[in-house]
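Researcher: We're teaching a course module on how sequence relates to structure. For the next exercise, students receive a sequence and then see the predicted structure as tokens, so they can try to spot secondary structure elements on their own. Here is the exercise chain.
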Amino acid sequence: MPLQGEYEPSPDRWVREQVEEYERSAGTRANTLQGTPWPVVVVTTRGHRTGKIRKFALMRVEHEGEYALVASKGGAPEHPLWYHNLVADPTAVMIQDGPEALDFEVREVTGDERASWWERAVAAYPPYAEYQTRTDREIPVLVARRR
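Model: And here is the predicted structure for the students to work with:
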């Protein structure tokens, strides 16, 4: 069931425009990180403070129908805002990987499971390895499974 509520586009113009073009084209355009060959998916969450619908692109890290959502924020010292949205409500998430957005549920992974997903993430998007060296925090990895 699609997330319901008022949509609040990203304040970042490039994020807003990428999401709009991805959705408008059913995932046939704006489906890579700008200027690269690396594919992205569009993730929809509900803001944990505002309750508004939020959308953003993340690197496509898929394995056997599940997706890793890597909360790297480019190696910043703090987690991205979307991470807090998913921790607050792990069932309020949709992922669009192509023409339609589907319902998912997320969970944060640790230990050996995180290590496996981290390896997949770095294989899909090598800059993640560098991002980890930029921060003292362990970059969280959440795994999304279809509901």
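Model: If you want an answer key for the exercise: The chain has one domain: 13-146. The radius of gyration is 14 Å.
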